[in-house]
Amino acid sequence: MGELNKEVVDLVWKRPGSNGVSASLFRRWTQGLVFSETEHTALEQFEGGPCAVIAPIQAFLLKNILFNRESSNWRHITEEEQKAALCSTLAEILEQACSTSSTTSFCLVTWAKGQCPHTTTHTPLTGGPETSQQPTALADEDLGFERFHSILQKRIVKSLSELREEVVSLYETWKGRCGVLFFLYSVILTKGIVNIRNEIEDTTEPLVDPVYGHGSQSLVNLLVTGHAVSNVWDGDRECSGMKLHGIHNQTSVGFLTLMESLRYCKVGAFLKSPKFPIWILGSETHLSVFFAKEMCLVAPESPSEQARRVFQTFDPEDNGFIPDSLLEEVMKALDLVSEPEYYVSLMKSKLDPEGLGIVLLAPFLLEFFPDQTGTLWQGTMAEEWESERQRERKDTGIPDSFPVYHYNGLKQSNHNERVEYVQGTALVLGLEDPMVRTDDTPVKRCLQTKWPYIELLWNTDRSPSLN
């Protein structure tokens, strides 16, 4: 195993003191990027584990198919259209990884020349003649961990146009055995191992759990944002003198997690409100994708929403207040102050009339954004939330109901083990309405971290699975 390959292996798989990667776990990751036969724009996942790579690719793929194509028949595309969509998606993620690093070149990992393992033949289901030398989606059992990493090579690409050409030329490699790992390693080497280690919070933890095979949050963030940070909140936070890195910009596709509904974490606005209405959904063990075609769901951030987000970066515990000593920093971050000494002192006395030494979020927003917050904090909490949501829907044009879709790439998690989108209708209500109360499912609880009173009416007899 070459030195470069060893560094990649250590970053992705190795945990100090572990006994290496089991053959069964590695086999689960050795699959290609292949489309479902029943859902032409959906990628299939054969076993648990590689969803940390496949789900982000699927999210970007849907973005490009839904919003970058003129055809309205987005669920039925030709093989050539599949190739074009997948390759442009992979190039986009690689470009994002390069733009967030100090490198100016791209790295593509493939089989070393003449080292591609023997391919098998497939007999079409129609009973036609055999198609020879077609790469399989899953690697053969005899392609072990050590051997795989000993027969790799990398290609260095200097320009974006050359990258796009090379990605297209490697289409069969992405589809074939180990395509998921080839792309993952390409992103890692394009980003740079040193750059990734500088962003990961705990460098002793690998990107893939060597026991269970699940991808880490750092791996998901790397593919979604180009940064391998370990957290999902907005901006950086300090804890006991240590800086913890979060998300710094609005992302193209979003991320929501069931863990937030269980209060294990809090996803920030940059991931909750992406540029396109597509969200990766995280459960305890799996990633799926929820999406819609309504662009009004992801309207640009309003000034009051920006103020709320900035305020909360100075309130890492989500207490709803900050020490008055931080008020000047918050106001400067929002360009709300021109004369610090006099104006900040005036605002402190106005926002903290009792001299408690704290500034509450609600009065802060009401003071600086009265037209957008109105009477938001008058009345009960339920009334407050309803007032805010009604104003948001009025300002952004969010409809009361809209079509939604859910994707789960695991065959065994789909009806009849056929990977297909589950379509439904989302109702975004002002308050909980017992007349339209739907089942309390993990998918719904995950979405309620963004839309607290959302209800989902699926077109199928059973709700889609988050696992």
TrEMBL record:
Official protein name in the record: Ubiquitin carboxyl-terminal hydrolase MINDY
Gene symbol of the encoding locus: LOC110486083
Endpoints of the signal sequence: none
EC category: hydrolase
GO biological process, one term: protein K48-linked deubiquitination
One family name in Pfam for this protein: MINDY-3_4_CD
EC number: 3.4.19.12
SMART domains: DUF4205 (SM01174)
Domain Deubiquitinating enzyme MINDY-3/4 conserved stretches: 9-352
Keywords, ordered alphabetically: Hydrolase, Protease, Thiol protease, Ubl conjugation pathway
InterPro entries: EF-hand-dom_pair, MINDY-3/4_CD, MINY3/4
Cited function: Hydrolase that can remove 'Lys-48'-linked conjugated ubiquitin from proteins.
Membership in a protein family: Belongs to the MINDY deubiquitinase family. FAM188 subfamily.
Segments passing through the bilayer: none
